[in-house]
Write the structure tokens for this entry.
Amino acid sequence: MRVAVLQFPGSNCDQDALWSLRDDLGYQAEYAWHESDSLDGFDAAFLPGGFTYGDYLRCGAIASQSPIVGALKAFAAEGRPVIGVCNGFQILCEAGLLPGALLLNASERFVCRTVTLKAVNRDSLWTRSAEGLIRVPVAHGEGRYVCEEGTLKELREANRVAFLYVNDMGEATEEANPNGSTGNVAGVLNQAGNVLGMMPHPERATRNLLGSSDGLVILRGLELVCSGYKTR
Amino acid sequence: MPKVRVYVTLKPSLLDSAGKTVAGSLDKLGFHEVKGARIGKLIELEVETADEGRIKEMCDRLLANPVIEDYRFEEVK
């Protein structure tokens, strides 16, 4: 399993991603620079968090026009696994690989804390192993997921809501929602189920020393690809 | 050189949390007549030629996100 960690000017979770993929998951992980127009030789792609291009214009808007994102579109269309976390999620939405957009938190504040997630979809490679409640950190100012009402209905019907923000009882309450996301949505999948975008950081929860190792159940989904599991 | 002003605004149906904060701040300053504020962007482009179709394409491809924003533009004479 060779995973590309995409690097853009202003990425800042790229090292966290690389080290967790290498040290805690045992994958081969290499950086892929934004100016490159090829992802040849990679089996999966990770878009890390950060503030690409200073969040100018809109979060992820400029990065979504990079040559590497052009390559990523073809890569995703081939059914290869792609995960975008935080700013990576914003880039995937801006690139049109995922529906919706991320806006300033309803609280108007940067939120940095551990949240509880529940996987709604349970058959994508990313969510298949995500049983029960998952504790992972969020750290963002612009993480309020929005989409048109019809889109949310479509996502629900097509089982494309990957994760919800929930409380300790597994209920999607207002208190459990750190940013005011529509329908408590924390992560969504593309139609084929191989592209996942989420605001919380699974790569920051890959060993108990970090406070949680629950992120492993999401990132270990890549092992299913090694063993020939089809995305859907 | 012609100038084009592009105005990008958040769709009315979406909560503008930054605008809400500004409205609250104006209220605290005694401007109680303010019942709401919404913040948009003004992008001023210097262009060799102000071709409407080209400007529209710039808006659709980069300057605005149709999922969350509306836009309009005008040439500044």
Summary: The mean pLDDT of chain B is 96. The first strand of chain B starts at residue 3 and ends at 10. The domain at 3-76 of chain B is CATH 3.30.1280.10 (Mth169; Chain: A ,). Chain B has one domain: 3-76.
